[in-house]
Amino acid sequence: MSGNEPVFVLVRPQLGENVGASARAMLNFGLTRMRLVDPRDGWPNPRAVAMASGAAARVLDIAGVFPTTAAAVADAGFVFATTARGRDLTKPVMTPERAMEHARALVAAGQRVAFLFGPERTGLENEDVVRANAIVTVPVNPDFPSLNVGQAVLLCAYEWRRQTAAQPPEVTAMAGTVFASAGEVERLAGHWEEALQAAGFFFPPAKAASMKASLRNFWSRMPLTRSEVQTLHGMLRQLMRPRDRGGEGGGEGGGDGGGEGG
Fold it and tell me: The whole model's pTM is what?
């Protein structure tokens, strides 16, 4: 068993497709160590390979096959059993998040860790669960708690990846641009203030200072990109450009009395 990641043990899986789907889910989140306990349709299984779809087939290529659950986890220092059913067993019951937090600490300390996943029809039996040190239960809808084995594997693999990969919770996709500098935003604000001043926007004069301050705050509060700043400059230049109004009723400069429909 690899010492830097947990091993996922599929106990008596019934469908090759679910084994393949589990392999895909594992590799999606950087896990490669799979073990199979007494797969119903034997091993290797072409349906599992087909479902694994390409790169994830390598997870199946190195998967170990064992006759019993006890043999599959014999080298593990800590075993988690995934199950939604209540058990008459005294064990810690963890969410996937807490289980992977604990697993990460165990692995970092040099422990070997295994996760058990039961067969599609019945899930893990008590004879499997008694070999585990803790139970993992996904907080699903209590009226429909059943999870496909591939789904259960994906949820646990996701939690492992989420807690071990340096992935910030939020990023901004910049689409080929960068954020504008403070100086670029300042010049944009000045450009608009100048145009608005010329248009008589800052009225009455007594309120002009507070209106300008509000506009400056408006510009600085927005996380503008450089391309957006350039677009806003261009919009303003276009709006301020003199227009040829020859087709609007008498020619440019027609005056108040006749140029525009007077």
Answer: 0.71
